[in-house]
Amino acid sequence: MGEFFSFIGNNLADFWGYTGFANATLGHFIMILVGCVFIYLAVRHEFEPMLLIPIGFGMLVGNIPFNMDAGLQLGIYEQNSVLNTLYQGVTSGWYPPLIFLGIGAMTDFSALISNPKLMLVGAAAQFGIFGAYMLALLFGFTPMEAGAIGIIGGADGPTAIFLSSKLAPNLMGAIAVSAYSYMALVPVIQPPIMRLLTTKKERVMRMKPPRPVSHTEKVMFPIIGLLLTCFFVPSGLPLLGMLFFGNLLKESGVTRRLAETARNQLIDVITMLLGLTVGASTQASEFLTMNSVFIFMLGALSFVIATTSGILFVKLFNLVLPKEKKLNPLIGNAGVSAVPDSARISQVVGLEYDPTNYLLMHAMGPNVAGVIGSAVAAGILLGFLL
Amino acid sequence: MKKLSLGIFLSALLMVGLSSCNPKRIDSKLLLNEVLMVNENNYMNDYGIRSPWIEIFNKSYNVTDMAGCYLRMSNNPGDTVTYTIPKGDVTTKVAQRQQAIFFADGEPNRGTYHLNFTLDPEKTTWLGLFDTRMKLLDQVTIPANTLGADHSYARVDDGKPEWEVKGNSSKKYVSPKANNMIKESNPKMEKFAEQDKSGVGMTVSAVSVVFTALLLLYLSFRFIGKYFSGRDEKKAAAAAQPVATVKAEEKKENKSAAASDEVYAAIAMALYEMQGGMHDVESGVLTLVDQQSAWSAKSGFMRAKPERK
User: Fold this and answer.
1) DSSP code of residue B308
2) Do A233 and B17 touch (CB under 8 A)?
3) pTM of the entire structure?
4) Which end of chain B has less Cβ packing within 10 Å, N or C?
């Protein structure tokens, strides 16, 4: 009888060794707390809920402690575990291009086509990437790691994941979480900079309404866009190719069902998997390092530089533009390609100073140019550093 | 003037495109990579015998099958010997950026990697690699008496166009089934770490490329936009002209117009419905798109819920 109880006791002790309680560390609890904060921000304040809910929940999933020596194939970093299999889309870099396909299928480039000079605003905001690159080098990161960190300034989650999976897979979790966190915090980061860098007179500037864009122009845009940008930067092909392909599905008008799938079901499925696995990749043992702290700091600075350079570029550009074609500097922040949030910020801040001045359509131009610009910048970094 | 500038822009684009074409580029995936003719203390074959060998390199980033390809050797015109790499052997698939070794021992019955010819270092030797349709993939000529014992004639680095004799110094080593040049670090990274410590060089070059790419896109759509705006204006003017003419005639002859304002309104409404997404444009499929309006709103027809006062 005594042996039987001892057997039961040993079994329970063994079982205890496999539970989360026995394997938990302080790091696990910190990461679980961060995950809960993400979910709170998404639910309570609606900060990018589509991203923060999957990432936040992924953090909980990835930080459930378990006995890592038992070979249970549970963790995201254990080969052939379910999470590891789902994570292949991130590590092999095929989730981000599929997201770009959906983005292309839901993006209307009319604002950009009707006023193509806004493309240059999108290009100017990419200074954020290279500003962060220089700062990362200063902090002692290698050029490849610095390139991956710099792309946070592009404010483009899929691009950040794509590039970091190629240049610095060891930093991908921190880079992805940082990029998505700051994208969610665009309404907090950008307005003070916009107010600081513009005068009241500039904020109420009215822009010429965009001209109507013909169907032919809309169909030509993805084709010419792909050819021009990818001949220049072939390494941007996975992202730019899918972005323009999605847009052609939308604009051709004859593939409505495909466009619908790309911009609804497909992008939803991939967003869920991407968010969840990126969140789960923040396993405490891999994530809680000083590097992550630096990456978060550099991420914030890159957003500040990108917003600043976008606004200053518009102000500079206005010096050479004729009076009737001048741009409202409040759309400069939209060059940061957090679509459509940064364009919405231009609209909101603009309306604060003139309730009848609607900047949204104008800001969408640099906003979508920012998407193209950040994908081009990612291609350049890949080409230069890989 | 517009047409002239458009022409200049397109010509410049075409010239940049054409000038960047490089006809000398090697497009072949499989390349001859290294040849050793006198094997005294070098790589041994699977029979434990040392014989001359030829290394083939898969330059691509994908698995490539050599089955059905031809390896040809000649010392003099007209004496070409051809070896067909057998089909049906799974080992003929070469992984990306990997090498395969063929032994020139004149014993083809010993297996796939044993050639039906040998190599003579005292004669000028031509080697050619052909694909399954006898298209030349790569060739090399090794001059007579170039190679000593355990020396190889190899590309300086895998897949690179330059060849050199290896095995005569510690830096130039014979490397069967291995990279011709061992890289202990990433040269690009080293270059950046040495010459661009602050990242300014990268920033300047990358930002210029981003700006140039988007500037090209801007210029293209500036021209396209101008063309379409001009075309639309012309169309609008042309469409307005007949109406004006009819109205003028109507006034002149004091007769009723060919088409009344109601007719134009009906045409406009029909056009509006057509363009407003009533149907999609997939050929052969009729899809009616539900157009929500006040007439179809259920709430408009429902009685308000009575409230007790």
Assistant:
1) -
2) no
3) 0.77
4) C
Question: How confident is the model over A347-353, as a mean pLDDT?
Answer: 92
Gap between the Cα atoms of A348 and B192, Å rounded: 42
Nearest residue in B to A134, CA atom: B199
Cβ distance B206 to A386 less than 8 Å, yes or no, reads no
Interface residues from chain B to A (CB-CB < 8 Å): 17, 186, 188-189, 192-193, 196-200, 202-203, 205-207, 209-218, 220-222, 224-225, 228-229, 232, 280-283
State both tokens at B158: 């895998």
For residues A163 and A287, give the distance between their C-alpha atoms in angstroms, rounded to a whole number.
18
Q: Which residues of A touch B221 (CB under 8 A)?
A: 112-113, 116, 119, 217, 221, 224
How many CB atoms are closer than 10 A to CB B221?
26
Residues 51-110 in A contacting B (C-alpha not used; CB under 8 Å)? none
Residue ranges covered by each domain of chain A? 91-385
For tokens 């847009």, the residue is A247
Position B264 scores a pLDDT of 80
Q: What is the rounded radius of gyration, in angstroms, for the C-alpha atoms of chain B?
A: 37
A chain contacts of residue B281, beta-carbon cutoff 8 Å: 253-254, 256
Tokens of B189: 């990274």
Q: Where are the domains of chain B?
A: 28-184, 186-248, 259-290
Residue of chain B whose alpha carbon sits nearest to that of A116: B218
Judge whether residue A45 has pLDDT over 70.
yes
B125 beta partners: B142
Are residues A376 and B214, on separate chains, in Cβ contact within 8 Å? yes
SS3 A195: helix
Closest partner CB to A113 (pick from B193, B203, B221) = B221
ipTM of the predicted assembly exceeds 0.95: no
Say whether B198 and A134 touch across the interface (CB within 8 A).
yes
CB contacts of A127 in chain B (<8 Å) are: 203, 207
Residues recorded for chain A: 386
Nearest to A377 among B210, B216, B280 (CB): B210
Q: Does A211 touch chain B (CB under 8 A)?
A: yes
Q: Which CATH superfamily is domain B28-184 in?
A: Lamin Tail domain (2.60.40.1260)
Those residues with Cβ within 8 angstroms of residue B15's Cβ, 6 or more apart along the chain or in another chain:
none
Task: Please report, for residues A124, A238, B69, the alpha-carbon distance to residue A157 in angstroms, rounded to integers and kept in the order given.
Answer: 19, 15, 46
For residue B201, the 8-state DSSP code is H
The tens-digit pLDDT sequence of chain B (309 residues) is: 556 666 776 677 666 666 655 555 556 889 999 999 999 999 998 899 999 999 999 998 889 999 999 999 999 888 899 999 999 899 999 999 999 999 999 999 999 999 999 999 999 999 999 999 999 999 999 999 888 899 999 999 988 889 999 988 878 889 898 888 877 777 777 777 778 888 888 889 888 988 998 898 899 988 888 888 888 888 888 877 666 565 666 566 555 545 667 788 888 877 776 666 555 555 555 555 565 655 565 555 566 666 775
Instruction: Quote the percentage of chain A above a pLDDT of 90.
Output: 54
Closest-CA residue of B relative to A118 is B218
